[in-house]
Amino acid sequence: MNSIKDIKILFITPVLERGGTEKYIIALARYIKDYGFIPIAVSDGGRAENELAESGVEYIKVNCLGRKNIFNFIRAPLILTKIIKDCDINLVHASSVFTAIVSKIACFLCYPKKIKLVMTLHGGPTRDIEKKAAKLLNI
């Protein structure tokens, strides 16, 4: 059993701009870091990168999360799988439908290690997007 100090959580968001999702992720990463967890953030970059760096949270820029297209849909899970394995991630937290889908694929590709995936969907085209995405992703 891992102690809290051994648990690494990967936060995945499309971009790090100055919106509510980014503020939420930065605040949550800082909070869990104060309690001994090891947060690592991944995104396609943005204006809030410096704020994340100043908070002492490790950050990895992945240039295929901000644009949703078929090329990035194939590329992102492969890159995320490598990050999950290289960083020995225990839990993945996705913040959008796109990042939840590519994260689910990446977690599956890490077999036989079972990587837990949680999601907090911020905004979306419908009010019940979280329920629909959870059903689709079986989480």
Describe the protein:
The protein is an alpha/beta fold and 139 residues long. Helix content is 43%, strand content 17%. The protein contains five helices and five strands, in the order βαβαβαβαβα. Strands 3-2-1-4-5 form a five-stranded parallel sheet, sandwiched between helices. Strand 1 (8-12), helix 1 and strand 2 form a beta-alpha-beta unit. Helix 3 (70-86) packs across helix 4 and helix 4 runs parallel beside helix 5. It is globular, with a radius of gyration of 14 Å. It starts with 7 loop residues before the first strand and ends with a helix. The relative contact order is 0.17.
Short description:
By secondary structure, the protein is of the alpha/beta class.
Kindly, what is the distance between the CA atoms of the first and last residues, rounded to a whole number of angstroms?
23 Å
Provide the structure class: alpha/beta
Q: Please give the share of residues in helix.
A: 40-55%
Biggest sheet strand line-up? 3-2-1-4-5
Main beta-sheet strand count, sense and barrel state: 5 strands, parallel
Morphology: globular
Number of helices, where a helix is a run of at least 4 consecutive DSSP H or I residues: 5
